[in-house]
Design goal:
12 helices
Length: 441
């Protein structure tokens, strides 16, 4: 049987695998999917996890629960030999390496944050790409409130209560609005801190927010966030980040103790090691997702530059990734059965963004712009229906209902910030009453 290997566990990879399961006969090919996480993250809801509006596990769906007969391997991809048709992977828990042979390879490893080499960003800024990032940002926000509550120096207190988001795209806009909602919900629990003491900045290099979307969406988003209390800074580029704060190329400085970087992404670093033709860092494909000159190699999702009928690449959004998977699955089946492939053709249904405070903005297929509460309600309804699994939809709906009745939780769960001590460290602990699972910074 032919061996189909899918690298990645995001929207595009899972959609490809599930549709291949339906389209292929059991004796026709074997399916293997490799991902470094054992779940699929529903990224549109990640800012709400960071603000405590949604529980962490409610926006992830186990990969094994989505697949029926695809073999799943929890591993990192270490090397790809296109000539030999082999992929070297390393198990995420055991560290064991093995080589996987393939006849058809789907490259869907997504993207990572790009800091453009700006000094201090890599070392000091937080990102918002993963579940761990969301938990880290939430814990950081709570920690800053706790520190500000006991700070004596007024300048230091102001720095602790200043938060800066860099990048006015989807992530920056939605995260800034959500974090401000979080502070409004919990600040009453800190009597020494007034709502006006907390400052949230949103810095964007373009002259409007959401620069890749219709101009009306960006203009409305800027006005709505400013009315809500976010300080929107447009036309400014970042020069660096250090202890003093976020330095702008214009010479100004935002004295923020917390900086969240969402100003750019780049395809998986493995892309550059393959020797393929790249376009803006992504693998250039034909309109059917195949990689020219490499039979049996396909690329999809954020790591692929897929041409649209206009010649421009399709955007790397979840909306497109979900629809790319089924078409790629049909094309792989067509190749195995000696039939012609079909190009990917998709017209966007529209774009939406949540702005916090029950406001949103939506472009309905270029026909008109919807704003305010109706757009926010549409955003929630659409993404709730797109969330994989009925149980997840019910859990998220329940979280949203509780959010209408109770304030956000301020328990600082530093799960990712602490590690279990090594046996020698535990044995030499100063406190004789400490238990074996005590965590240390």
């Amino acid at each position: 049987m032919k061996r189909i290997l899918i690298l990645g566990g995001g929207f595009a990879a899972i959609a490809t695998a599930t549709h291949l399961e339906r389209a292929l006969r059991r004796d026709e090919a074997t399916l293997t999917l490799v991902s470094r996480e054992n779940f699929t993250l529903f990224t549109p809801m990640l800012p709400e996890v960071a603000s405590g509006g949604l529980e962490t596990r409610h926006v992830v769906t186990p990969i094994r629960a989505q697949l029926r007969r695809t073999q799943f391997l929890l591993a990192d991809v270490r090397a790809i030999d296109l000539a030999a048709g082999n992929v070297e992977v390393e198990h995420a828990l055991t560290g064991t390496r093995r080589s996987l042979a393939y006849d058809q390879l789907v490259f869907a490893l997504g993207s990572v944050s790009s800091t453009f080499g700006i000094p201090g960003i890599e070392e000091r800024a937080l990102s918002l790409k993963s579940l761990e990032d969301a938990d880290r940002l939430r814990n950081r926000a709570i920690a800053m409130l706790e520190l500000a509550d006991v700070a004596v120096d007024s300048a230091e207190r102001k720095r602790l209560l200043t938060f800066a988001f860099v990048g006015g795209g989807y992530t920056g806009v939605e995260a800034a609005g959500e974090l401000l909602d979080f502070f409004r919900s919990v600040v009453r629990l800190y009597p020494s801190i007034a709502p006006a003491d907390i400052e949230v900045y949103l810095v964007e290099g373009a002259h409007r927010l959401l620069p890749d979307l219709p101009e009306a969406m960006g203009q409305y988003s800027g006005r709505a966030l400013e009315r809500g209390g976010v300080r929107v800074v447009l036309g400014e580029f970042v020069a660096g980040l250090d202890d003093a704060g976020l330095h702008l190329k214009s010479g100004g400085t935002i004295a923020a103790a917390t900086v969240v970087w969402s100003a750019g992404v780049r395809p998986s670093p493995l892309v550059t090691s393959l020797g393929l033709t790249l376009e803006r860092g992504a693998i250039r494909t034909a309109s059917d997702f195949s990689v020219p000159g490499h039979p049996g190699l396909w690329a999809i999702g954020d790591c692929a530059s897929i041409p649209s009928p206009s010649g421009k690449p399709y955007p790397g959004t979840a909306q497109h990734a979900i629809r790319e998977g089924p078409v790629l699955a049909r094309n792989i089946v067509a190749v195995l059965r000696g039939r012609p492939t079909a190009p990917f053709r998709y017209a966007s249904l529209g774009t939406m963004a949540s702005l916090g405070a029950r406001r949103g903005v939506a472009d309905l297929g270029g026909r008109f712009i919807l704003t305010g509460f109706p757009a926010w309600f549409l955003w929630r309804t659409y993404y709730l229906l797109r969330l994989p699994g009925l149980d997840r939809r019910i859990r998220v709906a329940f979280d949203w209902t509780l959010g209408l009745l109770f304030p956000r939780d301020i328990a600082e769960l530093r799960v990712f910030a602490r590690t279990i001590p090594r046996p020698a460290e535990a044995a030499n602990a100063v406190d004789p009453e400490s238990t074996s699972d005590r965590r240390s910074p």
